[in-house]
Amino acid sequence: MPGPEGDNSIAREPLWHAYGRGDDRPEPPPWTWASTPPPDSHVPPDPPRPAGPSRVLPTGTAERLSALAYPRVPAAGPMAPDALPHALTAAFGPVRREPENPYNEHRPYASPRCLFPVHAFVGDGAAWRLLEPTRHALTGPDTGAPPTRIALTGRYTAIPVAYQWFRGSLVSIELGMVLRALSLGLELFGVPATLTPPSGGGAGLLRELGQERTWEWSLPWLVDVAGPGPVARAGRDAPAPAGDPSLADVVRVDREQAYPAGAAPLTTAVPAGLPDSPVAPDWAELLWRRHSGRMPRALHGMDSAPRPAPVPARHLAAALAWLGVPPPHPVLAAAFDAVTVTAVVQHVEGYAAGVHRFEQGAAHLRRADPTAPAGLEANYGYGLSPVNGCGIAKAPLTVFFSVRPRELSARLGPTGWGAAQLACGWAVHGLCLAAAAAGLFARPVRAFKEIPTKEVIGLAEDEAIVLSAVVGVPRDTGGDQLDLRT
Ligand SMILES: Cc1cc2nc3c(=O)[nH]c(=O)nc-3n(C[C@H](O)[C@H](O)[C@H](O)COP(=O)(O)O)c2cc1C
Question: What Pfam families does the record point to (predicted)?
């Protein structure tokens, strides 16, 4: 079992992975304590643009999403010619700039520090172009053929080196979030598709995408809208540069994750039977309202405002429904089954304050404890300070996704680790949309000190926290919100 040294998610992550793969007493790798530049000094790399023109995507996506009543999902029908570009904009297109927020810009899904390490490359069977959400364009060779496939891959070097080995986890979690955002976009624009996991064999597809520095990238997941296409596999990885040993190890672990299965259909991102939202009559409004919580005057973090009345029970029921939708593809659904969901609840009508286990669409009280939210806040890495807001003690709901790494590995082999992170990303994005529909915010976070937090929520010694999310009541910051939707 990982020891108590360096009790934070960045240091413990490789230990849990090693424990899962059979090491009973994993030792912190030597680079754990290496000094790294402060995250705020990180300069993200230039966009990975292939050579070729930048073609602007069609406008009018927000207008079309406004015409789609929430929570209904249109029945599948004949696909409109520009459905795929609109689905891409619905999934990735910038929504908002918040001049007072230290992090910008804001897309339909959350991303650590708005770094958006996961990129989409869009192919037509002959060539690949880069989706550039900020430019609202596809960049690369324009063959004139309609796009038919999307390759999703995460760029480790988009994340500050200080995150060390945790860069791999952040990429996998965001891949799961993006997969749900894209599934939703495709569903809303009536585009059926399949999903093909990376099956190992090498970095051939990354080179096909024009990425010669293959070590910067995770092996791609492919979404095909015209039936599964061929996948380039063979191709050697370019060696990761010396001086960043945790990155070399992240790439090694990513390349071990060869999924044996081929393509499977994308399933739904949206649970059936959702209630109407009191704040979002349509999907454009829902996506506009999704956010991670804000602070005024460029302060970091989030705060949860007081609510005059408890949160209605139907909002928690809807969140449970969003959390219960399995991700697409049997390999991810199997990992999703291995994830435990534990929640600290307070001020929700009909639910006792304390620790609940979320299982099969229902909340089961494990321990009544009105002090649990304050216990969580006391063990969070970014507590209340003159530069940081923290609303965890006041938040109606904080959700934890955890796994048993040994069990995961025994059931799913080397793919279990990444698949579980994708499954948690998928689930947390559903929770973020549920919160938006309830007029709340949901902030995915990883900054809990794991060992004491597990005591608060009653997890066993061999359980590892993959991800958590704080669901709070937005406070009015008085800051501007610039609408970037197209
Ligand atoms: C995987 C993940 C981990 C995150 N971890 C933290 C965290 O530990 N602390 C925090 O304050 N925010 C965290 N965030 C929240 C992001 O900073 C936030 O989503 C981003 O600033 C964008 O804001 P928005 O979601 O309102 O658009 C995390 C987000 C993701 C997706």
Answer: Nitroreductase
* Residues 316 and 397 sit within 8 Å (Cβ to Cβ): yes
For residue 113 and ligand 1, the question of a CB distance below 6 A is answered with: yes
User: Shortest CA distance to 181 belongs to which of 280, 109, 282, 115?
Assistant: 109
Q: What is the Cα–Cα distance from 102 to 85, expressed in whole angstroms?
A: 30
Cα 330 from Cα 306, distance rounded (Å): 42
290 Cβ closer than 6 Å to some ligand 1 atom: no
The answer to whether residues 57 and 136 touch, using CB atoms and an 8 Å cutoff, is yes
Number of other residues whose CB lies within 10 A of the CB of residue 114: 15
What is the rounded CA–CA span in Å between residue 294 and residue 114? 13
Whether residue 31 has its Cβ less than 6 Å from ligand 1 = no
pLDDT tens digits along 179-197: 999 999 999 999 999 999 9
pLDDT of residue 79: 79
From 106, 163, 286, 446, the mutation candidate for ligand 1 (largest count of ligand atoms within 8 A of CB) is 446
Contact between residue 120 and residue 84 where contact means Cβ atoms under 8 Å apart: no
Residues 6 or more apart from 315 whose CB is under 8 A from it? 348, 434, 437, 438, 440
- Computed over every residue of the chain, the mean pLDDT equals 95
SS3 401: strand
Q: Which domains does the chain have, with CATH numbers?
A: 39-265 (3.40.109.10), 270-483 (3.40.109.10)
Q: Which residues contact 276 (CB under 8 A, 6 or more apart)?
A: 70, 71
Asked whether residue 384 carries a pLDDT value surpassing 70, the answer given is: yes
Cis peptide before 71 (omega within 30 of 0): yes
What is the distance in A from the centroid of ligand 1 to the CA of 160?
14
DSSP labels for 3-21? -SSS-SHHHHHHHHHHHHT
pLDDT digit string (tens) for 335-372?
999 999 999 999 999 999 999 999 999 999 999 999 99
CA atoms of 197 and 402, how far apart (whole Å) = 23
Among residues 210, 61, 187, 192, which one has the least CA distance to residue 122?
210
Residue nearest to atom 4 of ligand 1 (CA): 445
Residue 162's pLDDT band, with cuts at 50, 70 and 90, is: very high
Q: How is residue 166 annotated by DSSP?
A: H
Measure 445 CA to ligand 1 centroid, in angstroms. Answer: 6
